[in-house]
Structure formats: structure tokens, C-alpha cells
């Protein structure tokens, strides 16, 4: 059986060919794995999000229930199928949207810097193990100079875009593969930034609690349901061959080592500038938005389940932060303008573009405060380009995500008994934090407008904290952060539900 795969909008067009035994059936996801390509399935292949449609030029498989649920009949007749549910049984040619296979781009360093020659005898590596993205930075030990960095799509995405789907996969017997996927990805990252014969003396790793557990192959059963008890929250350190490896500790099941690393970075920077008692709100925006409020003494921490909408996933118009993703939008007098990552042809909207788009639609009264589109756009959606539409369902998902985050912020303010006027800094981290328009975010109610003037984008604070620890390690400071942290539960608190319902508007 001959399976041909073509990635759309890639020039020159290339056919990737997989030969299998005659009469043998294979899923599309398995075919992509064998071809060495990552197939992005936001819901992990359970057919929940329906956002992985692919088109068969010929040889389309039988129509499934998921196809009928997700696609128009005219699209099905034209060869479109839900990719995660496809079973291929005969020769075919498949067109795959670029957004379903693209690697996430690196932010923060030029390609020229990444091509500089290295002294490979004095290197440490900082690693951020994200649910969607892995990032690694090479640091010169004696100077602290950042030498190279790169990002890579987490291969565990084949089991879903959120941590709960990964937990389920591990419990279902895929723990070994989940661990190996990350190890393989990180080895590829190491080769990418340092070459084949790289040697490192120190590695500091941070990630959310679930990602760290999966990496270390610790049991995750306790985090599958309330009260969400991890196997361990402590730092893990060991020596492997010639290198010292250190995993950042966590605060709770859903406030992990990536947040501890970020707080370590903020704490050390404040110490250097004699600002240790200044208050701040720290928001790491992602599928699970981790929020920390520091009142000068204690860290009030929570995790709001925002869903993947603000990362571009699960939206009909959404993509990850890949080349060609629309990252900023303006709409004035009916004229829509946008920019894309890398200046390439648009393939969809990433998180910052999604926030801009919803803000611009509301500002121009194309949607009302409940997110409903004007009647002329209600059925098809609002056209961003000829091929990209923002639908009413997309807008509702954004409203749900923003309601979860701002309600979490309000819960922390109440727990700390601080008013917005008492907050000295608003720090936003993560890939979205690096590109977000704070005015658009405040305009849709994602963050309080009172904090706009106090906003500072920190970028990848997980990596920054790792680097800070490489250069100035203090396990006592890490322990101080943990000892002075208080978890504010959201999901089990009726008041959070009340705030959430109140915030379901723009």
C-alpha cells in the first residue's frame, strides 16, 4: 500500500511516501509517526475537538461518525476527514494543513547568534519542559552568557494537548513511551543547539508537575482526580556521567517547577535591585494559567483551567506560534490589517492574534458583550482572510478562557486582602506573554485595566529561572518560596463559580 502525504503551503511541494504491506490497515497518526513527522492532535485523538481535518486527494477512507459530526457534507464529498480518526486501508494521497505539523519557532535570539561557534568544554543547559513546547538554552558557565537556544514541539502531543490527557495515557500503560518521547526530543534539541558531540557539565530542568513526573517516570495516578496528590513535590538531583542534573521543585500538583523557576528569577532580580518587598501579580498564560500574587511576604498561588484557546488550539481559526501565524491584528474603518510570524502567508491566528481579533471585533461593535457576531457573520464567521474565519464558537471559547483567568486573579486578590492599587507589578510570562498586546488583553477583560501601566512581559520565566539557578544556585531560596506559598483552590470553591459566571462577557 502506498500512502502519499503532502504538507500544504510548503514550497517546493514535496511528497512524503510510506509503503506498507498490502491489505494492512494503518491509522493516519501512525503513518505520520513512521514518516518522522509530528501530527498535532489537540485532544489527543479522542475526537473531541475536531480540529485536525485533512484532505484525501484520492483514496479517502470510509466516513466515520466523527466526520459527520465535524464536517459539512460538501467537505466530506471533497475528501476531508477528521485526521485522528482516519484508518487507511488502500493507496491514497493526503493533503495536510501546515498548522498540524509545523514546529514551534524560537523567540528571543537571531539565527546568527545560534550559528556562533561554541566552546564546548564549559557549558550548562537550561531546559523548560512544557506541555506543548520544549525549550533549551545553552549557557557559558563562567560568564553566564546565553550562547544558543531553540524550541521544539513536545512529541507527547500525540496523546493530547492538556496534562489530564497525558495522565490518562500514562495510567493506560504508555508511561515508557511518554518518557522516551521527551528524552528523544531533548536529545534532538541538544544536537540542534550544540551539535553531535556536545558535552555539558550542568543541566537544570523545570516544567509543570505532570511533565516532570512523566519525564522522571514517576506515578501520576494521584493527580488524576481530586485531591490531586503528586508522587513528590521536592527537587530531584542526581549525577549522570559527567553532568549534574537538577529538577526544580513544585508547589502543588498544578503549580509546578516552571512557576517556581519563574518566582526564583523574579526573587533574585528583586534582591539585586533592593525590591524584595514590592508586591506583584505573576501570570503564566497557557492551557492551565498559573497565577501567583506576592503580597511582600507570602505567595498566593492558583491554577485556572483556561483551556487551549489562548494558545491557538481548539479554535477553527487557531494555530500554535508557528511561522505564518497571525500574531497581531488591527481593524479600523472596516479595514483589517495583520502581521504574521516570519512575515509569511497567514495560516491561522496564534494566541496573541486571537486576543487582538476578539478585542477589535468588540471595539468595532461587530460582536456584543456576550460575544455574539452581527447577523451577517453569525453563520459563517468573521473573515480574517479569504481562508481564515473567526466563528462564534471560537469567540465563546476565548470568553471562557478569559473568565477563568480573571476570576482566578480576583480570587487571589480576595485571599491576600490586597486591592489592585496595592499591586506594584504585573508580570506576564510564557510565549503568549512575550507577544500579547496588554491593551487588547485588558480590553476583553483578561487582565484588570488598572494594571496595564504596571505590565511587564518577562518571556520564558521557566528558562530564565533555570539560568539564574545555574549561575547563582540557592536551594534555600527555592525552599523559602515553597515555605511561603499558599494554594488557593479554585475548582472546588463555589465563589469561584460565581465569579466565573459574572465574567462571561467582554
Automatic annotation (TrEMBL):
Protein origin, superkingdom: Bacteria
Any one GO molecular function term: iron-sulfur cluster binding
Pfam family of the protein (one): Raco_middle
Domain (2Fe-2S ferredoxin-type): residue spans on this chain: 1-100
InterPro entries from the UniProt entry: 2Fe-2S_ferredoxin-like_sf, 2Fe-2S_ferredoxin-type, Beta-grasp_dom_sf, Corrinoid_activation_enz, Raco-like_middle, Raco-like_middle_sf, RACo_C
Gene3D superfamilies reported for this sequence: 3.10.20.30, Domain of unknown function (DUF4445) (3.30.420.480)
Coiled coil: none
Name listed for the protein in its UniProt record: DUF4445 domain-containing protein
Organism: Pseudobutyrivibrio xylanivorans
Source species taxonomy: Bacteria, Bacillati, Bacillota, Clostridia, Lachnospirales
Amino acid at each position: 500500500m502506498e500512502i502519499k502525504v503532502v504538507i500544504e503551503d510548503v514550497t517546493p511541494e514535496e511528497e512524503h511516501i510510506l509503503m506498507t504491506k498490502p491489505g494492512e490497515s494503518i491509522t493516519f497518526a501512525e503513518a505520520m509517526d513512521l514518516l518522522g513527522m509530528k501530527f498535532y492532535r489537540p485532544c489527543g485523538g479522542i475526537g473531541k475537538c475536531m480540529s485536525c481535518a485533512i484532505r484525501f486527494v484520492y483514496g479517502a477512507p470510509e466516513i466515520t461518525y466523527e466526520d459527520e459530526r465535524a464536517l459539512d457534507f460538501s467537505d466530506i464529498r471533497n475528501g476531508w476527514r477528521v485526521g485522528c480518526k482516519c484508518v487507511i486501508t488502500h493507496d491514497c494521497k493526503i493533503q495536510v494543513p501546515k498548522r498540524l505539523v509545523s514546529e514551534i519557532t524560537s523567540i528571543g535570539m537571531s539565527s546568527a547568534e545560534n550559528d556562533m561557534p561554541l566552546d564546548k568544554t564549559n557549558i550548562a543547559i537550561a531546559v523548560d519542559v512544557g506541555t506543548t513546547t520544549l525549550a533549551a538554552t545553552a549557557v557559558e558557565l563562567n560568564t553566564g552568557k546565553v550562547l544558543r537556544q531553540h524550541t521544539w514541539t513536545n512529541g507527547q502531543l500525540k496523546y493530547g494537548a492538556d496534562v489530564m490527557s497525558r495522565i490518562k495515557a500514562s495510567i493506560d500503560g504508555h508511561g515508557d513511551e511518554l518518557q522516551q518521547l521527551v528524552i528523544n526530543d531533548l536529545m534532538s534539541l541538544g544536537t540542534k543547539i550544540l551539535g553531535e558531540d556536545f558535552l555539558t557539565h550542568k543541566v537544570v530542568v523545570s516544567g509543570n508537575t505532570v511533565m516532570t513526573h512523566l519525564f522522571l517516570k514517576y506515578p501520576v495516578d494521584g493527580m488524576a482526580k481530586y485531591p490531586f496528590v503528586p508522587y513528590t513535590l521536592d527537587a530531584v538531583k542526581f549525577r549522570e556521567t559527567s553532568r549534574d542534573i537538577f529538577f526544580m521543585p513544585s508547589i502543588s500538583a498544578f503549580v509546578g517547577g516552571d512557576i517556581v523557576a519563574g518566582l526564583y528569577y523574579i526573587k533574585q532580580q528583586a534582591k539585586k535591585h533592593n525590591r524584595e518587598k514590592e508586591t506583584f501579580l505573576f501570570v503564566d498564560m497557557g492551557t492551565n494559567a498559573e497565577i501567583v500574587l506576592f503580597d511582600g511576604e507570602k505567595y498566593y498561588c492558583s491554577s485556572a483551567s483556561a483551556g487551549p484557546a489562548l494558545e491557538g488550539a481548539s479554535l477553527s481559526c487557531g494555530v500554535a506560534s508557528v511561522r505564518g501565524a497571525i500574531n497581531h491584528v488591527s481593524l479600523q474603518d472596516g479595514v483589517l490589517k495583520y502581521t504574521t510570524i516570519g512575515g509569511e502567508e497567514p495560516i491561522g491566528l496564534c494566541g496573541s492574534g486571537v486576543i487582538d481579533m476578539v478585542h477589535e471585533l468588540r471595539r468595532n461593535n461587530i460582536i456584543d458583550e456576550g460575544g455574539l457576531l452581527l447577523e451577517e457573520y453569525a453563520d459563517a464567521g468573521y473573515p480574517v482572510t479569504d481562508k481564515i474565519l473567526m466563528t462564534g464558537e471560537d469567540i465563546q471559547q476565548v470568553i471562557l478562557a478569559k473568565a477563568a483567568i480573571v476570576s482566578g486573579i480576583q480570587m487571589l486578590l480576595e485571599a491576600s486582602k490586597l486591592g489592585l492599587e496595592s499591586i506594584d507589578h504585573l508580570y506576564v510570562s510564557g510565549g503568549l506573554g512575550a507577544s500579547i498586546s496588554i491593551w487588547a488583553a485588558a480590553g476583553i477583560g483578561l487582565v484588570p485595566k488598572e494594571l496595564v501601566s504596571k505590565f511587564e512581559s518577562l518571556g520564558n520565566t521557566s528558562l530564565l529561572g533555570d539560568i539564574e539557578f545555574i549561575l547563582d544556585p540557592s536551594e534555600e531560596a527555592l525552599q523559602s518560596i515553597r515555605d511561603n506559598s499558599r494554594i488557593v483552590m479554585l475548582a472546588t470553591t463555589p465563589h469561584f463559580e460565581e465569579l466565573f459566571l459574572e465574567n462571561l462577557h467582554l
